[in-house]
Amino acid sequence: MSKKVLISYFSHGGENLVDDEIVDLGNEGNTMKVAKSLQKALISYGIVAPCFEIKPIMDYPFSYEETNKRSHEEYETGARPLIFEGPDNFEEYDLIFLGYPNWWGTCPTPVLSFLQGHNFKNKLVIPFVTHGGQIFMSSIDEIKKEIPQTNVVEGFAVSAVFLNSADIVIAKWLSANQELLK
Fold this sequence. Notes:
Elements: E1 5-9, E2 15-18, E3 21-24, H1 30-43, E4 51-53, H2 64-77, E5 95-101, H3 109-116, E6 124-131, H4 139-146, E7 151-152, E8 157-159, H5 166-176
Parallel strand pairs: 1-4, 1-5, 5-6, 6-7, 6-8
Antiparallel strand pairs: 2-3
């Protein structure tokens, strides 16, 4: 029997740094795009996994510079911004894919708010990250610190520069880690 799987993610649209240039990603940030690719890839394993977007109550600014400033301040002060509730029936999920961009060498603070607001006991958490070259850095250690009684297994990383290769990265990772889905 397959595990009941949820894809939860935080993503920032608007202006982002991609290959040392500030570009407009529109409403879909890189992590949202990767979450949707993961959702499609899981279907080939017979798993229908809903996506849940971790959304702060106070949106981040469209501007890269303003978002950068706010996220750094949150990181430095240990802030945990308020997020919208959800997903429904969280307790029913066995495996949680947790996606986020690498901000300041770790996960964005809304992700940490999400971790603090849910009971992850007896769940498997598989982080995946979008990045500009820093991959996971300290984010997995930070996740383990927030949910210490949870099995956290390193997932996959997708570079913003090679976002078009996300499907390949995901397929390769899922193929090598099929046992985690059972």
